[in-house]
Amino acid sequence: MATEFTGTGDPARSMALLWRTPGEPVSRPGPRAGLDVDRIVAAAVRLADAEGLSALSMRRVAAELGVGAMTLYTHVPGKGELVDLMLDSVLGELYPAEEAVTSGSWRDRLTTVARANWDLFLRHPWALHLATGRPPLGPHLMRKYELELRAVDGLGLSEVQMDLLVTLVTGFVRGTVGGVQERADAERVTGLGEDQWWAATEPYLAQVFDAERFPTAARVGPVAGEELQAAFAPERSFAFGLERLLDGVAALVADPARS
After folding, report:
1. Do 148 and 118 touch, CB atoms closer than 8 A?
2. Which residue range or ranges hold the HTH tetR-type domain (predicted)?
3. What pLDDT shows up at residue 33?
4. Shortest CA distance to 135 belongs to which of 182, 170, 85, 96?
5. What confidence tens digit (pLDDT) does each residue in 197-223 have?
6. Which CATH superfamily hosts domain 11-91?
7. Cα torsion at 3, 93, 234, 203 (round to 10°)?
8. 3-class secondary-structure state, position 36
């Protein structure tokens, strides 16, 4: 069974590995002496990217690295700690150019934050649920939080407002990416792509749909479908929602006392 949440392992061991504190060497002598925590985590991330978190096990990761499963346990105590390490590792991909979230207008900075998170969770779909839950406070998570706070610093907002604003933007991103993943899951489970599903349902819908009963849907649906070329256009929804969200942020920045 897939680990559905971070924090299922020993929190102290996870934190020691995340921060590489004394007593947790990066590598140890033994079979495949070149093996270390970073190589194990990288292999686990590749596996999760390719097959999802449900495919992840210490045995599978060991096979990817060409070692026995017990060799992995000399570096990482178990799957729970490994998942913690995986999430923090991919969060390290965010903001390679830190000035993108610390310079320019606040709107540009928050757009960069939103886009970077959107791209990250599309690359690593398995990380979305983990990041939504109770992620461990590793170095890359703390860097992410620090830089995202800097993106809204100096706007006259209180510390609490800054924290809530970062949560609002990143939460919006996770929600929209979640829609992308749900559609992908539906295609995988049903074996039908979006076009195939509509082709199978439209003939019946044409027989039962009552435009007099649903006049607004009858007017809006065809126009939106023609424009978007899909029942759900995730990128368009993301861009539209982000602009409306930032319009709301502009009202807060103009009058921080209103909240």
Report:
1. no
2. 34-94
3. 53
4. 85
5. 667 777 877 788 888 888 888 888 888
6. Homeodomain-like (1.10.10.60)
7. -50
8. strand
